[in-house]
Amino acid sequence: MNFTLKAITPHELDAFYDTFEGEKSYLQTSKYGDFREALGEKNFRFGIFFGDRIIGTVQFQRIPARRGIHLHTPHGPLIIAKHREPACAFFLEEYKKIGKKEKCDFVRVSPLFSPEEISAFSQAKFRSAPVHLVNPERTWVLDLTQSEEDILKNMRSSTRYEIRRIEKSGIKIRRGNTLQDLDIFWKLHMETVSRQGFVPFARHTTETELKIFGKNILMFSAEIEHIFCSSSIIIFDNNAAYYHQGASIYRKEPVSHATLWEAIKEAKKRGCREFNFWGVSPEDKPSHPWTGLSRFKRGFGGSERVFLHAQDAPLTLKYWGNWVLERYRKWKRGY
């Protein structure tokens, strides 16, 4: 097969992304690459060519973590179905060469491939990553090509009841992407962190996202009796809206439902075909730390998509120290 890997422009990356008909997420758009570069990482954009025709794209970052420098491809590569298997095999070999050139300890891929598509990775001597999660591998997606009435009809009855209560509860929704909107979100976020005990993103990271994504990122904040009680950050591309972050304080009123319902309606107005609730836990693991949040997401209706677990190719012995550390973290977090 006459495949080649060539550097491409942000415009070429996005043009392929916008017309690609397979599984994809905003992690393979140029704005996401710009965001990672703004955080100090080296970003790569390549086209996979068959002859002189581009049949795939891939974007990945060089991550200088103390536990091991590595390349990571989030939710990529994107390859048209006709050339998927041989082109993927070609890319994986080239990917390892770039990793060695960049003095990496390993390379990692988090593809939106089905779990059955493991053979190309096994043949290229990739192995299952020790981490519990790199990017969502089990997502919950709502079809937005339905009418608003059908979306409501297909919700869980308890969720539909809460949606009906929004207006009666006097909830007002503020939307925006200013630093004032971030102040509202961040106050709720830190209260959520304190309550649930997880490690938060740095505020600078979210500020950078606001700057890079511009009109493609919005915060929806629910206010009741002049108090903001819930806030959700949503990222949009030409295909979907993504539930990026959420924060709330306890209220009897459906404040969290209100922020997402408003986001779903906004996504429909923008012409998005899907609302991606991002990661969910397996339904057969009720002790999973995400069980409550996943039940909330599933209540809006939709379907589950499960993808191949992240794959690693070790390049130096340092990888194995990272392997032990990540396995320990996975165990400690209860995943």
Structure, explained:
The chain folds into two domains: 3-135 and 309-333, Gcn5-related N-acetyltransferase (GNAT) (Aminopeptidase, 3-Layer(aba) Sandwich); 138-306, Gcn5-related N-acetyltransferase (GNAT) (Aminopeptidase, 3-Layer(aba) Sandwich), CATH 3.40.630.30. Strands 1, 2, 3, 4, 5, 6, 7 and 15 form an eight-stranded mixed β-sheet that branches. The protein is built from eleven helices and 15 strands. The model has no long low-confidence stretch (mean pLDDT 94). Helices cover 38% and strands 28% of the residues. The protein is an alpha+beta fold. It is globular.
**Oligomer, anyone?**
single chain
Note the main sheet.
Answer: 8 strands, mixed
Overall morphology: globular
- Quote the beta fraction: 25-35%
CATH domain topology of the largest domain: Aminopeptidase
Q: What top-tier CATH class of the largest domain fits best?
A: Alpha Beta
Calculate the terminal CA-CA distance, rounded to whole Å: 41 Å
Which superfamily, in CATH terms, is the homologous superfamily of the largest domain? Gcn5-related N-acetyltransferase (GNAT)
Show unreliable segments.
none
* Helix count from the secondary structure assignment: 11
Helix content: 25-40%
